[in-house]
Design goal:
By secondary structure, the chain is α+β, with helices and mostly antiparallel strands. It contains 21 helices and 22 strands. It has five domains: 12-134, 2-Layer Sandwich (Beta-Lactamase); 142-258, 2-Layer Sandwich (Beta-Lactamase), CATH 3.30.450; 272-346, Helix Hairpins, CATH 1.10.287; 354-504, Histidine kinase-like ATPase, C-terminal domain (Heat Shock Protein 90, 2-Layer Sandwich), CATH 3.30.565; 530-643, Response regulator (Rossmann fold), CATH 3.40.50. It is elongated and about 120 Å long.
């Protein structure tokens, strides 16, 4: 009979119960049992905590799942069990693998269990996680390597001895603080002197709490330390209690890592997140404004359409209704054009027609554009222009747009009977335009972001000033495309605003680079044309057909591309107005096929589409279109195009 391992006065049942409780309650050691083949049969909570497998996953699995792939491939689990069978136990320290794939340094005792008859009945295994001890031992053994790592990480090691009140500081830490040649052992009070005064009381409290919880309570805090040059840097301090020997008092060993750059990055990240959140709010506000601005003209358009549908109005009422619809469509078109315009400019897709320009002419044209709103609100406009010519290089249309936007902005945000001043100043190398108003002004935070996309001052829910918050963003982009600068200023809410634009000046005045305009020929009377309209929007096609017929043309409508091809081959139209987004064949392909039809090589093709990007236009011209119009179509422009079409050939591309 085998001698029992344990001497006890307890009954076997009582001893077994206490053993079970011990295995279950122990927190620092993974304890479990296996059968003779290494199949796990029990699993305590510490094992689950240490290795990551719960009892359902572990019980019934082989011991080898706890080993690294390298150890499994060389048969290390089987080797360990064989050693335990032959010698009664097997002890080792080695890397083990958790369920999540991470490794920990384990001290393992694998014991072969035998019954009273000496028969092998299974194994017990006790595992301790010594990862932290392993790392500390490594640091002790490799001091030189530790110093190198600390230097590379901008970190320093320190040890606090509560029993003596002294703090040992490594040379690298002292060097980080600018005290390279100072003593490495200081009092705790001197240690606190290394800290920013505002942090000393909090750090003192943290150390006191750690001491009260010794040896279990660790220390982790971010501290602002002051260098010898009085500059401060952030450090991340982490420390654990350590007992150098069984008879020695505990000391608190810590490492402090310089995280100043991380702090800066974190602050920048927080600012970036706040900025993104603010931009998201502005985006949502813009979408709400856009919906409002688009619904406003839709209301009179819808009402006008209903009035026309009833047919009960007299001629004057019908004319008035038509004018209202036309104005509102024009307003919607301007809104959409603004959106497309700011998209092109902000993405760098805008093309500038650069010429030598007299700034006085540009300002005069801009004032004329802004005058209706200024007069509507009964503002007084003071215009100060130089007497001499001042040439700048720029796109006349775009620069007029810049100045008109700024004048309209001043008019919008100035109460009726306000004062607006436009002062044009000539300097040696640049021209300065200053627009000053006595309107609602701006808060300091708005001044800093007034040129951001979708930014607007707060206004009442009636949104009487209108707009989408695109104008000033467009101004900034266009001015910068011209090599200039724009700035905003305000003394505060209710104290007016000032916008200043500076543009490079051409120092040597020379003749303009634009060709002189040729005499305008007298247009002949428009010919009666055979026109094909192709649009899958039945209502849009029918309305366009009626307008063209009213202008004296013969019009055929098709709502699908293939039927349009067949019709064109029979009728041989003089011009074809094609929608691009057709369902069965897009308008680009239809244009190519029309060009290949016998007798239609010179037909005038006009794109009528909602796509307005420059790349869309280029694709249309490449497909064979002569002209490109965006919806809603400017009917006057369309009539002008058709007036240039003759029976002999296509009109010029525009």
């Amino acid at each position: 009979m085998i001698k029992p391992y344990t001497a006890t006065s307890l009954s076997a049942h009582h001893l077994a119960e206490l053993t079970r409780l011990m295995v279950e309650e122990v927190k620092e050691a993974a304890v479990f049992f296996m059968d003779v083949d290494g199949i796990i049969e029990s699993w305590n909570s510490a094992a689950e905590e240490m290795k990551g497998y719960n009892a359902e996953e572990a019980i019934g699995s082989h011991l080898s799942m706890l080993y690294t792939p390298e150890d499994r491939s060389c048969g290390w689990p089987q080797h360990n069990m064989q050693e335990a069978r032959e010698h009664g136990f097997f002890r080792e320290e080695r890397w083990r693998m958790r369920k999540n794939g991470s490794l920990f340094w384990a001290r393992v005792l694998l014991t072969a269990l035998r019954n009273d008859a000496g028969e092998h009945v299974g194994f017990s295994k006790i595992t301790l996680d010594l990862t932290e001890h392993k790392l500390l031992e490594h640091c002790v053994r490799e001091k030189a390597e530790t110093r190198r790592v600390l230097r590379a990480a901008n970190a320093g090691k320190w040890t606090w001895h509560p029993d003596t009140g002294e703090v040992e500081i490594c040379e690298n830490f002292l060097a980080l603080l600018g005290y390279a040649n100072d003593a490495t052992t200081v009092s705790f009070t001197q240690w606190l002197d290394f800290l920013d005064p505002a942090h000393r009381s909090a750090v003192q409290l943290a150390f006191d709490n750690a001491r009260a919880g010794c040896p279990k309570k660790s220390l982790h805090l971010e501290i602002l330390m002051r260098q010898k040059n009085r500059e401060c840097r952030w450090f991340d301090a982490r420390a654990e209690w350590y007992q150098p020997s069984p008879d020695a008092p505990y000391v608190l060993q810590g490492i402090s890592i310089d995280i100043q750059e991380l702090k800066i990055v974190s602050e920048e990240r927080s600012q970036a997140i706040e900025q993104l959140q603010a931009e998201d709010v502005r985006k949502n506000e813009f979408l709400a404004m856009l919906a409002h601005e688009l619904r406003n003209p839709l209301a009179p358009i819808s009402a006008g359409a209903e009035l026309l549908r009833t047919g009960r109005g007299n001629e004057d009422r019908i004319r008035q209704t038509s004018e209202i619809i036309s104005r509102q469509v024009s307003h919607m078109t301007n809104l959409i054009d603004d959106l497309l315009d700011v998209s092109r400019v902000t993405r760098g897709l805008a093309e500038l027609n650069m010429r030598d320009l007299d700034i006085r002419r540009v300002v005069t044209d801009a004032v004329e554009q802004a005058r209706p709103l200024i007069q509507l609100k009964r503002h007084r406009l003071a215009l100060h222009m130089p007497g001499d010519v001042a040439l700048i290089a720029g796109d006349e249309k775009r620069l007029v747009q810049v100045i008109a936007n700024l004048l309209n902005n001043a008019a919008k945000y100035t109460s009726q009977d306000g004062q607006i001043t436009l002062d044009v100043k000539i300097h040696a190398a640049h021209v300065e335009l200053e627009i000053v108003d006595n309107g609602i002004g701006m808060a300091p935070d708005l001044v800093g972001r007034v040129f951001d996309l979708f930014t607007q001052a707060k206004r009442s829910s009636d949104r009487s000033s209108g707009g989408l918050g695109l104008g000033l963003s467009l101004v900034k982009s266009l001015v910068e495309l011209h090599g200039g600068q724009v700035a905003a200023a305000s003394d505060g809410v209710g104290r007016g605003s000032t916008f200043t634009v500076m543009l490079p000046r051409i120092l040597t005045q020379q003749a303009g680079n634009g060709a002189s305009a040729a005499a305008t020929p007298v247009d002949p009377a428009p010919a009666r044309l055979n026109i094909l309209v192709v649009d899958d929007n039945v209502d849009a096609a029918e309305v366009l057909c009626m307008l063209l017929e009213q202008s004296g043309h013969d019009v055929t409508v098709e709502n699908a591309a293939h039927q349009a091809l067949e019709r064109a081959a029979l009728d041989l139209p003089d011009a074809a107005l094609l929608d691009i987004g057709l369902p069965d064949m897009d308008g680009l392909e239809l244009a190519r096929r029309l060009r290949s039809v016998r007798g239609l090589a010179d037909v005038t093709l006009i794109a009528i589409t909602g796509y307005g990007q420059e790349v869309d236009k280029q694709n249309a011209y490449a497909a064979g279109f002569n002209h490109y119009l965006t919806k809603p179509v400017d009917y006057a422009a369309l009539v002008a195009l058709l007036g240039n079409v003759s029976k002999e050939g296509a009109g010029l591309r525009s």
